[in-house]
Amino acid sequence: MGAQAENATVFRGGHIEGSTTASRKWLLTTNSVIKPAFSWSQICVTELAFRNVLATLHVFTPFLHVVHTFGTKTSDKQRARNVVHCHKWPAHGFEFCYNIRYFELNGRKRGNPWSLRQTGMYQNCVLRKQSRWILLNYSTYIYDRVSEAFASANVPHCGASTLVPHLFLLSAATRSWNLYIEALRHKVMLIEQKTYLSGLDQAPLHEHSPLFSDIQELKRLSDTISMAFDVINGQKEISVRCGDLHTSLALGHSDCDIADTIRMLQADLQHYHEEMTSLSRTTAKAEQLISSILAIRASNKLQTATDITQMNISDLHLQSRYMSVDAQNLLQSLFSSTIVDDLEDGVSHIVLYLEITLPLLLATVVVLVLLEKGLPKRTWLRRLLRQKAQGMQTAVSHGSSWRSSISRASALDLG
Q: Do residues 294 and 212 touch, judged by C-beta distance below 8 A?
């Protein structure tokens, strides 16, 4: 680009490289290109050098809004905004600046093959006299296309040649939309197809069973689609400003038919916008369907767990009832009585059990204590036993006397 302008200043890595050529005279005489080390890195130029460029080209203040959109970033969402400023002068001159974002293949073989790029453009134009340009950041393809635009901009019979670099930049920035939209659509269709082939009763590990991770992926795709909408809207706004400049500045006859080119770019951008709208609706429908399937499955699992819990509770109640009947049978078998069956309403089995068992328990304890300590030597029980023994001896002696008396009487009778 520097070799195709009378005065070109190129900033790379904080250094300034200047080159001039006098072989041909161009309408665009002063160009400045500022290139960062890599995408989303800080602009590699010293503050003093950048201020000198702004002062030399008499750049208006709104261009700083474009500069502020650049810088070190870790996400495409950082400082993601569209900036377009245009100031017209009464003497058919204008200052025009903007940042344009676009998607390009990054050539990496891992991760996301698409990257969001950004280029800043500034033009200070006095018609048919001189245009000064500043280009912030660019890809190789953008650089080649804009270089061609500067060469084409010096067509003597084309009154709209001053706007040609903007159209070349717009054309280069919009060239990848078809491939990018198709890549997004393919990702959405894979999840959508899995959703349509899924049933409510399939296991979570089924090949076509949607998972919560699918909802997360659709959320990420939805965010990407929203960002793509914002990028398209920014490109549409730039094309509208170019059309307004072409109309309001009365650039005269143009053999390059710039008005038709602008209309064609706007029609293409509208088509891409409609494609993204359709894709956004498909993504929302797939997400809603997966959410419904997962919600129904979760509800069915919850109902199954509730049924199992109810069955377990019923079993516990039944076992409790059986245990109560077993206790009643135990009381009947212990006491061989129908007193348990003859209980009136309101009488507790526990009270009855305590009334019967406590006296028995107390008597048992007393007997055990007596056996443990032994009987006293002169207790009433021993006296009773002694009296019984003496009585038995007396009875035996009396019986012997009576038998001897009977024997003597019998002998007397016989004699």
A: yes
